[in-house]
Amino acid sequence: MIQIFTTGGTIDKVYHDANSEFEIGHSLLPELLSESNIHEGYRFRELMRKDSLEIDDADRHVILQAAEACDCERIVITHGTDTMADTASVLSSLKDKVIVLTGAMQPARMRRTDAVFNIGFAWASVQLLPPGVYLAMNGEVFEAGAVRKNLKAQRFERI
């Protein structure tokens, strides 16, 4: 069984107008999994609906507590990309679970989103990786503490 936690981020953004005003909406994750023909083998729980720039240390503690309390050995967490690496570093204290954070550069509701691929990639990664905390984004896996988001290039890179 894989536990999936959602925290918000771009993957769940809903844009309201041409001025790019947005809110974090209900997660499309169950729908994305269903479209990928994944219908069982997971539990789903929304932890929060926040842009990752709004996630603070108290929120990271909530995420950490949820992962600690979870009886699953494999966890996928959807998270906004701007502070995903920070949350992964906090979670790296958990040594006995496989935790994979993923998200999207474009909302799942948009036609040209990377959300579907990233979710599928995280789903496979969480089943294949050894215990540890990882980011799975755009076809690459990064270890917690050894990754950053390159804002200019709009991608993750090893540090």
Automatic annotation (TrEMBL):
Superkingdom field: Bacteria
Active-site residues per Swiss-Prot or TrEMBL entry: T10
GO molecular function, one term: asparaginase activity
Annotated L-asparaginase N-terminal domain residues: 2-150
Pfam families per record: Asparaginase
InterPro entries per record: Asp/glu_Ase-like_sf, Asparaginase/glutaminase-like, L-asparaginase_N, L-asparaginase_N_sf
Database matches in PANTHER family: 60 KDA LYSOPHOSPHOLIPASE, L-ASPARAGINASE
UniProt protein name: Asparaginase
Species, as recorded: Marinobacter salinus
Organism lineage: Bacteria, Pseudomonadati, Pseudomonadota, Gammaproteobacteria, Pseudomonadales
